[in-house]
Write a structure and sequence with these properties.
The protein has one domain. The chain contains seven helices and no strands.
């Protein structure tokens, strides 16, 4: 297992770097054409948004813990489902304070940043990375490890959450891609700690 750690992290780094660069190149097109400010007026939009609402996953982790998971060959599955989105969301808040990039302007495309001297511990109005997307993908990646055959359901819901954040004008496309990539890394690191298979533990 240890011999796979290096290649796995290199794969994550290469894929993430390529995805983030591509997302930044596509940001102007996404900002101009992917717009639907009322996306959350409908049930589908609200369903997708709450994938990025932390209690959604916390209730799932509680249900998994109460049900028991003897049939899941993963050590501490409820803990993985709890910590995956929780730590991803926490990482998003820290990264916002470091990157300090503001949310998109509705009228003019462009990246704007807040100086560190202006509220160094406040992430008000900051969008990189998207907290909703990091929580959604933190949960999705955790569920994919717990129930591999269902992974595309969770990836689709998390991608839907990311799409609604762009359509609503709350984030640049790159805000969401960075969030997804970082959440992938967070859950992968957690899985090495609390999500290893029982046979490997």
């Amino acid at each position: 297992m240890a011999s796979n750690v290096g290649p796995a992290w290199r794969q994550w780094l290469l894929i993430s770097a390529a995805a983030v660069v591509l997302a930044h190149l596509l940001d102007p097109l996404a900002w101009e054409y992917l717009r639907k400010p009322n996306i959350y007026d409908g049930d589908l939009g609200r369903l997708l948004r709450i994938q990025g609402f932390l209690p959604t996953w916390l209730f799932g982790a509680l249900a998994l813990r109460l049900h028991g998971a003897a049939h899941i060959k993963v050590r501490k599955p409820a803990l993985l489902l709890f910590l995956g989105p929780a730590l991803s969301g926490a990482a998003a808040e820290v990264l916002k304070l470091l990157f300090r990039r503001l949310r998109p302007d509705a009228e003019v495309f462009g990246y704007a940043f807040r100086a560190f001297s202006d509220g160094p511990l406040s992430n008000r109005g900051m969008g990189l990375p998207s907290s909703h997307v990091m929580v959604a993908f933190g949960g999705a990646f955790a569920m994919a490890r717990l129930f591999p055959r269902t992974r595309w359901i969770w990836y689709s819901l998390a991608t839907g959450c990311a799409t609604t954040r762009v359509l609503a004008g709350a984030h640049f496309l790159s805000d969401t891609v960075v969030g997804a990539c970082v959440a992938w890394g967070v859950v992968a690191a957690l899985a090495n700690r609390v999500g290893r298979s029982v046979s490997a533990a």
